[in-house]
UniProtKB/TrEMBL annotation:
Entry's family note: Belongs to the DCK/DGK family.
Active site (UniProt): 83 (proton acceptor)
Swiss-Prot/TrEMBL keywords: ATP-binding, Kinase, Nucleotide-binding, Plasmid, Transferase
Any GO MF annotation of the entry: ATP binding
A cellular component term, taken from the record's GO annotations: cytoplasm
Residue stretches making up the Deoxynucleoside kinase domain: 3-208
Pfam families: dNK
Keyword S-adenosyl-L-methionine belongs to the record: no
Binding-site residues for substrate, renumbered to this chain: 31, 43, 60, 84, 89, 154
Protein name in UniProt: Deoxyadenosine kinase
Binding-site residues, ATP: 7-15, 145-149
Length: 219
């Protein structure tokens, strides 16, 4: 079984991944954040520094590389949950291209590498996730949780419009672009799976129910 958890920055992917992983006995592969040398530079550099050092492009390559390694490890262990996926990485790359932070040539290079990785995945025993748990929330909830998380490099007010642009396109990405698996949408405006046991139990119950439905469909 392979599950991916998707959603906006700070919406609660790691917490949901941990809760579902523990409940279902799945190993969790978290997004490379705390050990990512480029992420703080991406958030804190000036536009001129980003242009000179190509931090947005380097960041997307770093995520692509670490995510692909996580996928291979997850497939090897057979039962896993991934905090984000390659499919979602491409969404971030396109947003940064739209903003002019990634050039046309860089996006072509990124797409070529991604296509090669997807071809390799097609030859693996598990070619796609069984389920995508999409965490949906209002922009106010996203920003509140981002501030509560307290990563200093994420807090600058100049980043708010970047966050808003990412947030605004997420539903379209899920509904129109993501085709790899069934999707379970979870409204994070109403849930606190860390501090509220009822919310935690509701989440697990719904994930199990969705997986049981998928098993019946493929039986």
């Amino acid at each position: 079984m392979m599950i991916v958890v998707s959603g906006m920055i700070s919406v609660g992917k790691s917490s949901v991944s941990k809760a579902v992983g523990e409940a279902l006995g799945l190993e969790v592969f978290y997004e490379s954040v705390d050990d990512n040398p480029i992420l703080p530079l991406f958030y804190t550099s000036t536009p001129e520094e980003q242009e000179r050092n190509r931090y947005p492009f380097l960041l997307q390559l770093h995520f692509l590389y670490t995510r692909f390694n996580a996928i291979k490890q997850a497939i090897a262990c057979g039962q896993a949950i991934l905090d984000r996926s390659l499919y979602e990485d491409y969404y971030f790359a396109k947003i940064n291209h739209k903003l002019g932070r990634i050039s046309d040539l860089e996006l072509q290079i990124y797409e070529g590498i991604l296509a090669s990785m997807m071809e390799e995945i097609k030859g693996m025993p598990k070619k796609a996730p069984d389920l995508n748990i999409y965490l949906k929330a209002s922009f106010d909830t996203v920003m509140k949780r981002l501030h509560m998380r307290g990563r200093e490099f994420e807090q600058d007010e100049s980043l708010v419009e970047y966050y808003r642009l990412l947030w605004a396109g997420y539903d379209d990405w899920v509904n129109e672009e993501y085709k790899a698996s069934d999707v379970l949408i979870i409204d994070m405006d109403k849930l606190d799976v860390v501090h509220n046991q009822d919310d935690h139990d509701w989440l697990i119950q719904n994930v199990k129910g969705k997986l049981e439905t998928l098993e019946l469909k493929t039986a």
